Amino acid sequence: MNNVQSTTISSIPGKSKTSSKGWVSFNAVCCTYNGESQDKRMRGGIITDGDAISYHCFNCGFKTGWKPGRNISLKYRRLLQWMGVDSNSIQMLNIEALRIKDTVDIIDEEIEEFNPEFDPRDLPKNVPIDQAPRDIQEYAIKRCLPLNKCVWSDQKPGRLYRRVLIPFTWKGKEIGFTARGIDDETKPKYFTNHDPNYVYGIDDQYSDARYCIVTEGILDALCINGISTLGNACSETQAQIIDTLNREVILVPDQDKAGQSLINDALEFGWSVSFPEWEDDVKDVNDAVVRYGKLFTIKNIIDAKETSTLKINLKRKKYV
Prior knowledge:
Blueprint: H1 3-10, E1 17-18, E2 24-26, E3 44-49, E4 52-57, E5 63-66, H2 74-82, H3 87-101, E6 127-128, H4 134-142, E7 151-152, E8 163-170, E9 173-181, E10 190-194, E11 211-215, H5 218-222, E12 227-228, H6 236-243, E13 248-252, H7 259-269, E14 272-274, H8 285-292, H9 294-303, E15 305-306, H10 309-315
Parallel strand pairs: 11-12, 11-13, 13-14
Antiparallel strand pairs: 1-2, 2-3, 3-4, 4-5, 6-7, 8-9, 9-10, 14-15
Helix pairs in contact: 8-9
C-alpha cells in the first residue's frame, strides 16, 4: 500500500465496514459540500485496485481517485481535506505522486475528465505585429514578448490601435483576446474579451514538461511560455483546467500585496510557490525577463520554489 492509499484509508472518519468486493464503506464526507444533507447511511465508499484508489459517494454522486502516473487532482485533494488531512500532508502526497509519475509508464486513460468549453469569438481585424506601427513593435520587443504570439489591430473601439493584441485559444480555436496598452494614456491598461474561467497558455504547454509555471499577468506568462490566471485570483474551474496538465504547478506571485490572494489559492490547491530573490524594482516575471533574460528567470523560479506551507507563509510576509 502506497502513502496515498494508506493516508486516505487511515483518515476515514468514524465507523466503517468492508464488503466482500473490497469496498470500504463509511458516512460520506462530501455531501454537505455538494448541496446534500449529511450522510448517515454509510454511502461513501473507497476501493483499491493494486496501487490505485477510488472514492465514490452513492448519496451525492461525488467521485474521485488516483493511480500512479497521475498527480493528486483538485477533487482528490478536496476529499482529503474533508477527511481532515492537513494541507502539509496533502502537499507531500502530491510531491510523492509527481515523483512516482517519473517511474511509471504513461497512462492511457484518465481517472477523471474535465473538459470545459469556451465560446468561439472572432478577433478584431488584425495584422502580424511586424506590420504594426514602429512604437507598437518597439513596445513588444522591449517587453521581450514573442512576436509570433502577438498581433495588432487598427480598430478604434477600445483604442486597439494603441495596444499589443494577444489572441486567446482553446483547443486550437480562437475564443477571445486581451490587448495591452503601450502607454499610460491608453486606459484601461487591458482591453479584454473572453469567457470567465479561461486560463491563458494551456494550448502552448509542452506535453513532456515537468513543471507548469503560473502567473497573474498575461505578459508574465507570455514571455516564459507559462500560463496565466488573468488576474490575482484562481477559480476552482481554472484550477481544474491546470490540473489536467498533470505536473507540478509553481505559482510565481507578483511581488506586492495583490499577490497574497493568489498565494492563498496556491495553498488551497496544493501548488508550490516560488519566491525568487530579484532586485527591488523587479516586481513580476516580465520585469525579470527584461532584466535577466528568459532562461535565467525560469531557472531562478524553479530553484526558488517552496512546497512547505510553513515556509510559504513565512516568505510571503515580505510582500505585505
